[in-house]
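Researcher: Let's try something more involved. This one mixes different molecule types, so please make sure each is placed in the same coordinate frame as the others.
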Amino acid sequence: MSVIAAATRRTALPTAAARGIRPGRVALHGFLIAMTAVWLFPLFWAIYSSLRPISDTIQHGYLSWPSGGLSLANYQTVWMQADLPYYYLNTLVIAVPAVILTLLLASMVAFACTQFSWRFNLTTLMIFTAGNLLPPQVIIVPLYRIYLSTPIPMLGSIDIGKFSFPLFSSNGLLYDQYIGIMLIHIVFQTGFATFVLSNYMKTISKEITESAIVDGAHVLRIWWSIVLPLCRPALAAMATLLFTFIYNDFFWALILISTGDKRPITSALNNLQGEFFVNNNLIAAGAMLVAIPPILVYIFLQKQFIAGLTLGSTKG
Amino acid sequence: MGDSRDPSRIRVPFSGQKIQIPGTDIELPMGLDLSRRDVLKIAGYGSLAAFIAACGGTGTTTTTTSVTAKGGSMSLGSYLSDAVPKKGLQDVVDAFTSANGGTKVKVNTVDHGTFQNQINSYLQGTPEDVFTWFSGHRMRFFAKKGLAQPIDDVWNDVKSNFTEGFAASVKGDDSHVYAVPTSYYPWAIFYRKDVFAAGNYKVPTNWDDFKALCEQMKKDNLTPIAFADKDGWPAMGTFDILNLRLNGYDFHVGLCGGQQKWTDPKVANVFKKWAEITPYYSPAFAGLTWQEAAQQLLHKKAGMYLLGLFVSEQFVASGNPDDLAQLDFFPFPDVGSQYDAEKALDAPIDVYMLAKKSPTLGSDSGQAKAFLEYMSKGSSQITYWKASPGAIPTANDADPSQYPALTKKAAQIVSSAKRITQFFDRDSRPDFSGPNSMQGFLLKYLSNPKQDTGTLQGQMQSFWDALPPE
Amino acid sequence: MATSITPAREDSPEAGELVPTRRGGYHVLTRYDRRVLMVMVGIPLLLDVLLIWWPTVSSILLSFTNWDGVGSVTAQNFIGLKNYQFMFSGYTLFWPAFLHNIIWLAWLALIATPVGIFFAVLLDRDIRGTGFYQSVFFLPVVLSLVVVGFIWELQFSPTEGFINNAFGLVKSGKLIDWLGNPRINLYSILIAASWRHVGYVMVIYLAGLKSVDPMLREAAKVDGANEIQTFFRVVFPVMAPINVVIAVITTIEALRAFDIAFIVNQGKNGLELLSILITNNSISEASLVGFGSAIAVILLVISLGPIIVFLSRVMRTAS
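Model: All components are placed in one shared frame. Result:
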């Protein structure tokens, strides 16, 4: 909890101005401003390229001032031609349920392992944590076979434009399905979320749980109405972080989805490259459109985002 | 397609004399002294040598038989992800839908490279009913693994519309037919006519002239040879043609099939010859895609480009019709070996196949087969070709009078070749042709073409030797 | 921790009864509650074992076969250690890929991570605009590695990229092939990867620095230590738990490296990595499932190192 406090505290430290100008400080700021410029430049260059018409860059080269002005035409092209809105929808369809279910499952495990002592609680935590640290490539081949041989019910679909969102599965399998991608994210991220949430729950006094039990409350009720509300800051932080993780995933969807139109936005970017993003300016526009949602999340939920990361590392 | 039954139009005007191979009903152009073994080998490797041989005068038999069905729906997995061919496919699909009682076709387009890399997973997973693929070893490989559905019934209906060469190219090892060939294209050296005119360049016919031309272009501030190998496969095209010219068709085919060794000094000769032209390549070629190199040719920054006819897609996409009009090509120059006379080249055939594991194939079989039959018609192939002229229709009744000079010339260069291969990654094992095998080996060579290639060749051979039995 | 409530196991006395636990506490869980807890842990555990640990074990088994991924594995598919033999002695790309992972690790550990720590130390002071600087350095962390790859391709592209144009290399024709030259392209994508890694390390380290008792620094200052001495002699040792976390994160990141190399050229021509060899050999047109699994086992064995370090730390703090 102190970490979240630290994250908030950090943004408001007004004392520096009072000290006057010192050469050390000037050099420090000079260095930091230079590094800031270096850090922002690649992003700036991508934005600049994305705003220039291709005819302009062919004629004058990439390193030139815009002669014909800047425009959002490339964004328009990418957005319309590549049906980009649908790919965002693909991501949402996967990420939103995945985040919610991950947090539910992880909080249950963390609750059971931290509020009660039993023989294998540490082992359980270790199984989850270690699973999350494995490189995904270690398990991909057998996982792929499992996905091809697990029957999943087909319960119709919801069609939006040329995209179809099946309930559960459209081919009776986990492979090439939203639900399959959702599932592997849930399982993989539950490891991480369990670790973080159990660290957080350790800080909750056990007396709360104990007295609730003495009062006759069931564990399900204690978990849902007492512990989860106390974990709200941690849950918010984890939701932000998990959403970004899942949004940014490339590998699972690359291997476990074979239908181009079902890919979530990040892995679709690679698929769309040859098809629609035929020059660097369009590629830049496409990359920026994919980058915007996590940047927005970061701008508006920076506190949660950083808290999520640091909770996992500074506690426990 | 107008009066495509007129034999004078169907017969390819430059067809030469023909010979009948005893004991088979394969007809081949004259001037080839082929043994029966050779013929079988050509058949096995999907040769196009008989392209012009079979008389095309019979026209199509478009009788609707019980194997096809109208209406309903079907699905199609496509690697045609670049804008121009994608549009071509959509045109054909739309035409098919209206011709076949409103059959709904669901097209799944996957990026070209991704589609190929994941073909194995794709075919074992939940593939579409019909999928785009390649002939040659690459087709037979998946047929043998039981991932493709034989289509002998479809072929019976449409075979009269194809030459024996094409017929051979779609047969599996079990001699069932697994695909319908729909287009093919040659690999050759492309150039812009206006650039050659402005520089007063002459089309080189032998190696020395070729190198002298490169030298001249370099002086004129042109990149003599556009080259790009970020994708890994384009370099195979150069390897193929040099190996074919220096060491002959038989050796090349043997090398692709594992009967010849990579450690053979003949392979070293290929690399040595290759090193003579690598100095003329585009700078930083290992970081460029084939499209970027095509842009160099298009924008007159490079003089020549060894690639397939599909390079013309980039010229179509430029939007200026004059660009396409300026595009021309010539066959790879003679290198002064005894095999020059073979005029061998890569001319890959693209095909459509049925995926055995498609969950919907059971119900869509009739529609899928109707689509294959539709794709075997000259008129359908022309519809695709009009939007995407990067390849040549295969059907006998495709009306060549519509072709522009470039396509006619492309058909001719293939028919005058005495030996034809598909392309390295279609003629050899897929597990030998990937990014971490042959593509990687060739890039390693290209990073220092002057090197002694002995070690590299040893690595190639030991990789081959370690592959599991097919 | 004076009392804790322990759910009884199935063989324990009837529910509702007070039972002394090892720690001397008491518990009053009903049988129903114990069942609920079991389900709460059991479902996630089952999923984790089925979809992560079972595939891990399967990978090990598959590594002893020459299975091509079609049909089912039969006894004839088992070929003993042949895959390993070929990997270590015949497959020319294994050791380069291994080395590239090591270089990746070394680069992150010796360059990117120290830079991140350095930024954290600089920004830990109460200087004006520290929040802004932090936000900037952290920004790339929220981007996916795919987007990072695309953004840096725009910088490194031979003829159209920023770097070659800015240094006049395009005009002079002396192009540097940042992504195509196998001697330098690994370092090019490491720069891209570092762009993201530095901010990650910085944020975690900053959070740790905030929790260092300011009295320690004051004391060091009184003793006459300068800032560098203070950091290395006082702060760094106190930060030991965070240092372990950073070390683990850095190692895991290096072993997981995949996306950028795959985006740039599918991991060939100098960008071979273990993760990519697994994918390209076993889930590709090639489908050498057995051989790919053998590489996966090597990656697994290497990954177990940092994982065990991390877990032992968790163990220590938990008990």
